[in-house]
Automatic annotation (TrEMBL), chain A:
GO BP terms: amino acid catabolic process; fatty acid beta-oxidation using acyl-CoA dehydrogenase
Keyword entries, A-Z: Electron transport, Mitochondrion, Transport
SUPFAM superfamilies per record: Adenine nucleotide alpha hydrolases-like
Source organism: Sinocyclocheilus rhinocerous
Protein's recorded name: Electron transfer flavoprotein subunit beta
Quaternary organization: Heterodimer composed of ETFA and ETFB. Identified in a complex that contains ETFA, ETFB and ETFRF1. Interacts with ACADM. Heterodimer of an alpha and a beta subunit.
Limits of the Electron transfer flavoprotein alpha/beta-subunit N-terminal domain: 25-217
GO molecular function: electron transfer activity
InterPro entries for the chain: ET-Flavoprotein_bsu_CS, ETF_a/b_N, ETF_b, ETF_beta_N, Rossmann-like_a/b/a_fold
From TrEMBL, chain B:
Domain Acyl-CoA dehydrogenase/oxidase N-terminal: 42-152
Protein name per Swiss-Prot or TrEMBL: Short/branched chain specific acyl-CoA dehydrogenase, mitochondrial
GO cellular component, one term: mitochondrial matrix
Pfam families: Acyl-CoA_dh_1, Acyl-CoA_dh_M, Acyl-CoA_dh_N
Every Acyl-CoA dehydrogenase/oxidase C-terminal domain range: 264-410
Enzyme Commission number(s): 1.3.8.5
Catalyzed reactions: 2-methylbutanoyl-CoA + oxidized [electron-transfer flavoprotein] + H(+) = (2E)-2-methylbut-2-enoyl-CoA + reduced [electron-transfer flavoprotein]; hexanoyl-CoA + oxidized [electron-transfer flavoprotein] + H(+) = (2E)-hexenoyl-CoA + reduced [electron-transfer flavoprotein]; butanoyl-CoA + oxidized [electron-transfer flavoprotein] + H(+) = (2E)-butenoyl-CoA + reduced [electron-transfer flavoprotein]; (2S)-2-methylbutanoyl-CoA + oxidized [electron-transfer flavoprotein] + H(+) = (2E)-2-methylbut-2-enoyl-CoA + reduced [electron-transfer flavoprotein]
Cofactor field: FAD
Record's subunit section: Homotetramer.
Record domain Acyl-CoA oxidase/dehydrogenase middle: where: 157-251
Membrane-crossing segments per the record: none
Species of provenance: Sinocyclocheilus rhinocerous
Length: 254, 418
């Protein structure tokens, strides 16, 4: 197969870090905080590399949008087996307000430019939990989508996707080109072995600007305030059911 | 981030040029220090360290306790080390290795030691002793034969010490008698690490006893060689998962093409390689201390007594800060020794200092951590007591603390010769 896969990888605050809200409540503290590849994006990269190893796709291209630092994230994807990377340069205020709509416009434009046959993304990012980029990208391209994938198989020119849904598992067959978003159980991402990290140094990362792709990254959303979740208050013990009902009424809960 | 190794070896003239006013004006818009801090890493080094950190946490940590209890290194852990490319870090890609640098090895050894110092020493011996000797001294034929194996599936052991020669290494008694095109080796070795799993042994034997230490020769011996007997492993206080065995050579026949380097030059090779190996052990002790510390501080921040965290007591804070300082100093000594070696500059004294100091810091840290953890620090349910048992070997192997100090003193003496 001569298929080319585009994989989106997002640089997010590492899952193990304790998040702190900035004193001015405009966002969370990111300076000096450990960042890594979004865990669902790792799963997406792993799936793409596995497809290449099975010789079902020919080339895996890793894409990330952001400032200089996202190159580390792209390099990690290269070390996992992606063939080349594309760094879409977005920085400063534009980066702070970058969201799923702009990213999906960028991915759609890149998919056309790179003539991709398949886009694999993580189902959501662990910083904003949007769960929108995959779906929006498919809509912009008018491609079918297989979201929350726990299994992906290529059969001729179609994709069989097993999706994790509320009721259980749903199996769908969609035509290529398509967008797939990776859920937790799709695979277990490999470690970047040391020899592969060395090989990744030689792989190319191209730089491109959103404007070059004809994408306007200005946001339609304005974040007004960011707060920590309210501190959990202590509870109250009551002796009788009547007391309970009275207290709930007093608190306006019933 | 640009490669920082080059900046450490800049000549004095270059420094003067850099510091000149003209240079300053030209660079006014880019504030880059002429000499970056010691804890600066290339992108490749950072990626390696992060990869090993994750790998160690997920693939090694779950086995540590059992390996220590049973005194056995898990075979899956060893193969995982090979799979990740951790056993051939400096071996070139043309031999199937990782093709990276000495400093990367140091970072890997440190990260592994944070999780299990036994696994770390296996990796350290392979990279800093076995691979280094083969790469520096091997003929092309020997390199083609052994380097790919060492990088992919074969553990190596270095055999120098004997029951009657530890610090006095060169008084070793194992003899190699020449017959036509082979040598017959008789003798025994003690305290040989990795022996249980090793597929290849670098054996130091004396081919010309009349010449004293100038007869010591290094032989490459495959495990299945006739006459090689691997004894029962020692039941040790610490580093229990790392096998430590006596070896006996019973008229063991080794072909002369298995000599590494030149006959009678073995003592030189041993000294040269142990200088670098010293930095590896420093990294291991450093990782041990840091790993122990990282397990303990969170506990002190959680544990409440007298209405506050035990971390909040000034006595505790002062002790913790003191240990943290020692750790930082050990780290800088180790990293600097490694960078000096990579830069091709003299590093022997600094390597001794790093090994000596890191081993002492590891002992201090482990001891203090048990105290800070209180009763639970004394139980096997928590990982702290293992670090305490593991650290003791640091002041003993690969050159005892006393040997390090004597070596340093000798060099200091020479420095003032004028």
């Amino acid at each position: 197969m001569s298929a080319r896969v585009l994989v989106g990888v997002k640089r997010v605050i590492d899952y193990a870090v304790k998040i702190r809200v900035k004193p001015d409540h405009t966002g969370v503290v990111t300076d000096g905080v450990k960042h890594s590849m979004n865990p669902f994006c790792e799963i997406a990269v792993e799936e793409a590399v596995k497809l290449k190893e099975k010789k079902l796709v020919k080339e895996v291209v890793a894409v990330s949008c952001g400032p200089q630092q996202v190159q580390e994230t792209i390099r990690t994807a290269l070390a996992m087996g992606a063939d080349r990377g594309i760094h879409v340069e977005v920085s400063g205020k534009d980066y702070e307000t970058l969201g799923p709509l702009q990213v999906s416009k960028i991915l759609a434009a890149l998919a056309k430019k790179e003539q991709a046959d398949l886009i694999i993304l993580g189902k959501q990012a662990i910083d904003d939990d949007c769960n929108q980029t995959g779906q929006m990208t498919a809509a912009l391209l008018d491609w079918p989508q297989g979201t929350f994938a726990s299994e992906v198989n290529i059969e001729a020119d179609k994709l069989k996707v097993v999706r994790e849904v509320d009721g259980g598992l749903e199996t769908i067959k969609i035509k290529l080109p398509a967008v797939v978003t990776a859920d937790l159980r799709l695979n277990t991402p490999r470690y970047a072995t040391l020899p592969n990290i060395m090989k990744a140094k030689k792989k190319k990362i191209a730089n491109v600007k959103p404007a070059d792709l004809g994408v306007d990254v200005s946001s339609r959303l304005e974040v007004l305030k960011v707060d920590e979740p309210p501190q959990r208050q202590g509870g109250v013990k009551v002796e009788t059911v009547n007391d309970l009902v009275r207290k709930l009424k007093e608190a306006g809960r019933i | 981030m640009s490669d920082v190794c080059g900046s450490l070896s800049r000549s004095r003239a270059a420094v003067r040029r850099l510091c000149s006013r003209a240079a300053a004006e030209a660079h006014h818009d880019v504030i880059r220090p002429a000499f970056p801090p010691l804890q600066s890493f290339s992108e490749e080094e950072s990626m390696m360290r992060d990869a090993v950190k994750k790998f160690a946490q997920e693939r090694i940590a779950p086995f540590v306790s059992k390996m220590d209890e049973d005194s056995v290194m898990d075979a899956d852990v060893i193969s995982a080390l090979f799979e990740q490319g951790l056993m051939g870090i400096e071996i070139g890609a043309e031999y199937g290795g990782t093709g990276s640098s000495f400093f990367s090895s140091i970072l890997v050894i440190e990260e592994l030691a944070k999780v299990d110092p036994s696994v770390s020493v296996l990796c350290d011996i392979q990279n800093t002793l076995i691979n280094t000797l083969l790469m520096n001294l091997g003929t092309e034929e020997q390199k083609q034969l052994y380097l790919p194996r060492l990088a992919s599936d074969t553990v190596g052991s270095f055999c120098l010490s004997e029951s009657e020669s530890g610090s006095d290494a060169f008084s070793l008694k194992t003899k190699a008698e020449k017959h036509k095109d082979y040598y017959s080796i008789n003798g025994s070795k003690m305290w040989i690490s990795n022996a249980e799993h090793a597929g290849v042994f670098l054996v130091m034997a004396n081919a010309e006893p009349a010449a004293g230490y100038r007869g010591i020769t290094c032989f490459i011996v495959d495990r299945d060689t006739d006459g090689l007997h691997i004894g029962r492993k020692e039941n040790k206080l610490g580093l229990r998962a790392s096998s430590t065995c006596p070896l006996t050579f019973d008229s063991m026949k080794v072909h002369e093409k298995n000599i590494l380097g030149k006959v009678g030059h073995g003592y030189k090779y041993a000294i040269g390689m142990l200088n670098g190996g010293r930095i590896g052990i420093a990294a291991q002790m450093l990782g041990l201390a840091q790993g122990c510390f990282d397990h303990t501080v969170p506990y002190t921040r959680q544990r409440m007594q007298f209405g506050k965290r035990i971390f909040d007591f000034q006595g505790m804070q002062h002790q913790i800060a003191h240990v943290a300082t020692q750790l930082e100093a050990a780290r800088l000594l180790t990293y600097n020794a490694a960078r000096l070696k990579e830069a091709g500059r003299s590093f022997i004294k600094e390597a001794c200092m790093a090994k000596y100091f890191s081993a002492e810091v590891a002992a201090l840290t482990a001891s203090k951590c048990i105290e800070w953890m209180g009763g639970v620090g004394f139980t096997k349910d928590y990982p702290i007591e293992k670090y305490y048992r593991d650290c003791k070997i640091g002041t003993i192997y690969e050159g005892t603390t006393n040997i390090q100090l004597s070596t340093m003193a000798k060099m200091i003496d020479q420095e003032y010769d004028g």
